[in-house]
Write a structure and sequence with these properties.
globular; about 110 residues
């Protein structure tokens, strides 16, 4: 696993979800949110490519169940699909309407 990149880096590099039951005893954990005692992280994967990660943290130790992991993985797939769809729609819109004020040249929405 990548050294120094924490749980998020591990999940992004491996494409595998990770449940951290106790942040104080997990060698991958890098502190972020205050009062975090446990976390769960899932990759955003589309077409076998990791687009990013989705991380949820809790102030309680061992706060996440197998059901939580399953839900987060399903939600992460939906998020990855939605991000890809948004990107595709933005590219399609720019190709059909060059110079339109909704999107600048970098693909960012602007008004």
């Amino acid at each position: 696993h990548p050294q120094g990149n924490g749980i998020t880096g591990y999940v992004a590099a491996s494409g595998m979800s990770y449940v951290c039951k106790d942040v104080e005893n997990d060698p991958l954990f890098i502190p972020g949110a205050t009062n975090c005692k446990s976390s769960i992280t899932a990759p955003l994967i589309l077409h076998d490519q990791v687009l990013g990660t989705l991380n949820v943290e809790s102030p309680g130790p061992a706060a996440f169940s197998d059901s939580d992991l399953q839900f987060l993985e399903i939600f992460a797939r939906d998020v990855a699909f939605a991000l890809n769809s948004q990107c595709f729609c933005a590219k399609l819109h720019r190709s059909r309407c060059p110079g339109n004020c909704l999107y600048d040249d970098g693909g960012r929405q602007s008004l």
